[in-house]
Design brief:
The complex is a heterodimer. By secondary structure, chain A is an alpha/beta fold. Helix content of chain A is 31%, strand content 16%. Chain A is built from 16 helices and 19 strands. Helices cover 30% and strands 17% of the residues of chain B. The interface between A and B is large, with 94 and 64 residues.
Chain lengths: 484, 200
Amino acid sequence: MGKTLAEKVWDAHVVRKGEGEGANAQPDLLFIDLHLVHEVTSPQAFEGLRLAGRPLRRPDLTIATEDHNTPTLDIDKPIADLTSRTQIQTLRNNCKEFGVRLHSLGDAEQGIVHVVGPQLGLTQPGMTVVCGDSHTSTHGAFGALAMGIGTSEVEHVMATQTLSLKPFKTMAINVEGTLRPGVSAKDIILAVIAKIGTGGGQGYVLEYRGSAIRALSMDARMTICNMSIEAGARAGLVAPDQTTYDYMYGRPHAPQGEEWDAAVEYWNTLHTDHDATFDVEVDLDADTLEPFVTWGTNPGQGISLNEAVPFPGDFGDENAKLAAERALQYMGLEAGTPMKDIRVDTVFLGSCTNSRIEDLRAAADVIRGREKDPKVRMLVVPGSARVRLEAEAEGLDKVFKEFGAEWRFAGCSMCLGMNPDQLEPGERCASTSNRNFEGRQGKGGRTHLVSPVVAAATAVRGTLSSPSDLEPASVSASTTTDAA
Amino acid sequence: MEKFTTHTGIGVPLRQSNVDTDQIIPAVYLKRITRTGFEDALFSAWRKDPSFILNQEPFNAGSVLVAGPDFGTGSSREHAVWALKDYGFKAVLSSRFADIFRGNSGKQGLLAAELAQDDIELIWKVLENAPGTEVKVDLVSKTVECGNVVAPFEIDDYTRWRLLEGLDDIGLTLQHEEDITAYEATRPSFKPKTLPARIQ
């Protein structure tokens, strides 16, 4: 019988097969092709190596960047928060001591770890990629098996360049059809999570398939794979194709010359065989999909933007009912309120989910020639210093600034409350990030997860909106952005 | 890692599903560079509410957390496990754990025991009717006892063995270093290296 893509990648990395079969088989020992490191989940791992007198086995397969703690303003000044500054300095010291390549704040390659890897061409099809960050699933967009790990595992990879991993189950997410204008990859993944739930992917590697996925760009595929973890999945991936190769070709660490040809020949084998079977298959219709938005405090609590805040009584399951009641209370929402009547205070465009160049372009296209609701604050945070430079070369920074948005330096920013970009208690945010957990964007902050174009349209109207809700843009203002 | 065979301690009923790791420990506490001292950070936002279960005696002295389904979702932060352990928890019972949280627990000697939701509900009732009731978690027999409830739990054999023996993962893997070296020799040359750095 044939193999799924995930099984092929897995099998190609087995250093040592675990004994036994089925659910209680011993884990396989897998080789790790790329280890991404950042300041938050690494200090205790480096310390563990030091205490045990162990070297870092493969510095040449390891790369570090600073992203979670870093400010997005005044990056040329010392970091004001002392504990953040200490953590960043600790990473710098550790990378120096163990010979790890580091892209620090101010460096042209600094940025969110999941934006940096792909843009350098370090993420390639058929690889195993790990990082002490759950959104490592992002790299699955290239047909890599990419997993978030804890700090003990970070130390294990540093010491051995391997991980002990238990067998997984496979789930196909079939998305057939054509997305309508204003509907994007973010809406696909929010709809998938709403459908299967935050635990629905638990134990599974998801493979996103179907005509709607094939039609997506790499940036869009990364958005989808990024949020696989929000469905509880161990990883999410998309088979590589010409779109993947076109994205990779010429990137600094992409293979060159004959190596490129050899790589493509191998990459072409990385697809699920016709006679392979998935443990579970889930179908989603792209033709009828609408912009999606979350109303609650976990990413599975999402609905179409055209709908209203649900009634807890509508949930059959007692736990879901309780969770909905609690979420509505935290979110300050009344059941039955149309989602589009919900007014926001802040719009955040950024995070490892939606901070790549296409995300910025899509949002800029919506706001170009339009005015921001004066009561709304909008933060635009490119995913990496390189994305920022690219956007500025296209004049996107001017579009955002003229609109009245804040144009920031690269980092995780308002996705999580670890740096100065945070919501105030009770503040409501339309956010292109990945988690609407209580307090995630700042203590007491209220998060609605949305796509970049919904974020942009919301900044115009002040209430949750899709681009189709907007009046036509003024012609005169649009002429200022011809640089793009 | 300390060996785990059985543990008996006060059970804490946390009647909530989807307890994500941002709730277990908010990001602001992740700036520390130590592996211990996170007890103050555990559920820090919820602990500001006087009615929160860990603010009530005798639950504040609890060591077995009995939680709703999908415990430990979200961020991979192992700090969530460190915070639970530093507070004094030895075991968490739930009908479904997020994979990364479960993995992290196994590395740190915190027992993540998977029970049927019906059994979780029975244990919740015992703990709510008689606060302070102890829960006995027996990893040898894979059972939980609480009041008149006796329930089996699931844990994979490998993690169970490592917990029972108190084994260090890295040490185990390095016993197979020859296999790693042999694998490295077979890797295709087109696979990328981070060094030397190529910059665009």
